[in-house]
Amino acid sequence: MVHQPQTDYSVNWVNRMADIPQAAWDALAQPLKTPFLEWDWLNNLETSGSATSKTGWLPNHLTVWQNRQLIAAAPFYIKGHSYGEFVFDHQWADLSHRLGVRYYPKLLGMTPFTPAGGYRFLIAPGEDEDELTEIMVSAIDHFCGNNQISGCHFLFVDPEWRQVMERHGFTSWLHHSYIWQDKGFSSFDDYLSIFNANQRRNIKRERKAVTKAGLRLVPLVGDDIPKSLFPLIYNFYSSTCDKFFWGSKYLTRQFFEQLYPDYRHRVVLVAAYRDDDDRHPVGMSFCINKGDQLYGRYWGCFEEYDCLHFDACYYTPIEWAIANGVKMFDPGAGGRHKRRRGFPATPNHSLHRFYNQRLMQILRHYIGEVNEMEQEEIDAINNDLPFSKRDIQFLVQD
């Protein structure tokens, strides 16, 4: 489908990342802090069979061209369900059903299966961002109207971009993640000094439990990661999904294997080895790093060890982050237990537009109350952080 809002630009909807030149896409995506809008990551999701029409994630990427040059883009998916999004809109789907309005399919802007902030339109430096945003929003409205799409939704959006899209009529819905920030810590012990005495003892005890179990944790980065570990990441990921998250095994083995050739430079693994075996990890956490940002994605273990999860997913990545100049560590979705380990609740937002006027009116009428309740939850969590140094101020963007 091609829509031409004016003669200078052509707007194309593209159904495969592979049909978009990698260099052109990455010229827009690589300057951003988030790694999850880069061509390699998004293309891998498709070619590995993870985000495809068969899994309910039909790629439908928006591109804007000028004289055969890609000057703006955005990854989109047409969804027939809400799985793998980590923003739970089932109440809106239920309301839509009660009103006799078809909720699915919907148009979704996010990186599949990735509850990490930073989604936004990709716009080339030096271009008129306001004009291109208006063109892209118009193309979205046109596409949804022509194809009977119920609504357009953006999840885990860039905070500054959220304000831009609100001016274009999208409505914000407040959520929260648990985010660690470096406040100039010189070491992990320095980081521990901000906790009250009781929680400081607990964290030290948890780390000692891993050592007493005869395990050592080894961070592995980029080219230092053996190729053989990439399929093993899937085994750990699969094991955790089978144990705790039935129906959430969204990524294929091929996805992890395909990270090795062109994306391993972004990968950070924390591998747990027995003292007598430095080749076969018994547990592992899988993170992605770009610049001063670190993102925890998945974890697993083949045997149960006391506190291994906390050390592999939180403490050792924080220690690595401090040593390597990382300023922000997002450990992944869910878990109020994260606040006990130094991850304050931090706002994130989704953006929504329904094309049924009645549904849109209800959203706008009630979303303020919904957001107030969420803000109260964030405040309650952060008022109970186990810190003794109350002068520590964590950046909480709204």
Summarize the structure.
By secondary structure, the protein is of the alpha+beta class. The chain has helices at 22-29, 39-47, 90-98, 129-146, 159-167, 188-192, 197-212, 229-244, 253-263, 308-323, 357-382; strands at 2-3, 10-14, 57-59, 61-66, 69-74, 77-79, 106-109, 122-123, 151-154, 171-178, 180-181, 215-221, 267-274, 283-290, 293-301, 328-330, 345-354.
% residues in beta strands: 15-25%
| Main sheet overview | 6 strands, mixed
> Order of SSEs, N→C?
EEHHEEEEHEEHEHEEHHEHHEEEHEEH
Radius of gyration: 22 Å
- Kindly report how far apart the N and C termini lie: 37 Å
How does this model look, in words?
The chain has 398 residues and is an alpha+beta fold. Helix content is 36%, strand content 23%. The chain has helices at residues 22-29, 39-47, 90-98, 129-146, 159-167, 188-192, 197-212, 229-244, 253-263, 308-323, 357-382; strands at 2-3, 10-14, 57-59, 61-66, 69-74, 77-79, 106-109, 122-123, 151-154, 171-178, 180-181, 215-221, 267-274, 283-290, 293-301, 328-330, 345-354. A 6-stranded mixed beta sheet has the order 3-6-7-9-17-10. A 6-stranded mixed beta sheet has the order 11-16-15-14-13-12. Strands 1-2-4-5-8 form a 5-stranded antiparallel beta sheet, with helices on both faces. A hairpin with a 6-residue loop joins strand 1 and strand 2 (10-14). Helix 2 packs antiparallel against helix 9 (253-263), helix 7 packs across helix 10 and helix 8 packs antiparallel against helix 9. The model is unreliable at 1-6 (pLDDT under 50).
